[in-house]
Design a protein that fits this description.
Helix content: 25-40%
Number of helices: 10
CATH superfamily: Vaccinia Virus protein VP39
Number of strands: 9
Strand content: 15-25%
Distance between the termini: 17 Å
Radius of gyration: 18 Å
Amino acid sequence: MQSALPPSNAVDKEEAVVRAYYERGEERERLSDGRGQLEFIRTTEIVGRNLPPRPAVIADIGGGPGRYALWLASLGYQVEHRDLMPLHVNQLEVDAAAVSGIRTAIGDARALDLPDASADAVLLLGPLYHLASSADRTTAIREAARILRPGCALFAAAISRWATRIDGIIGKQIYLKHPAALDLIDEAERTGVFPPLHAGAFSAYSHRPDDLRAELAEAGLEVTDLVSVEGPAMILPDLDARMEDPADRAAILDGARALERVPELIGFGPHLLATAILPATR
């Protein structure tokens, strides 16, 4: 069975905002600096705890330019990569030209072209924070569950509800360039929706940890873990330099691991990452 979205004659405003941001072409190198390295190392570490034995089929849905798809292929997995952006698919095709085990195509997380129960694990590391509608997020999660084999794991990432205030306003002082951020933050924390501050700016839906758990459970999945990915280190102004120093890097990673499940601190870092299992019988 293949799911399908209702036909539409126009790209909705939400999708247009997403496309405007990613068409800037910055995502390909986003995980290369200190901040990106911390996110990548921790994400691969958390996902790696529950990956199936190799070889297996992993679906990387909303996988951007394919950094995680390339990582999975390097480990010996077969990867089905889908992303909404033609640019990202083209970039991965170039980067994976000499890599075996990756199939990529343009795809919407809400209507995948993959068969039922065809994946041994699913990565949903981006779509949920680009879908402001609860109905759209539920649809995307149900689609991920549809293509997942029973008993296997879905890895779902979300932006923390407090990331914009902690990382953006306190850490990066975005209000100096965009004063409107201070006027928007209270409403954004109430609704979870932070609008773009300028044309082509990042915009996202942000989750409270319990809300992410509830959305996954509503789709019939059993949440077995939910952690903070980066932890509080993301607020450090010298994070790039610290990640280059072996001792500082080890301390930052150890701190993220030590604090990842502390209830009072799970929402402190920018990203949440849930591991959820599709029951063998539903």
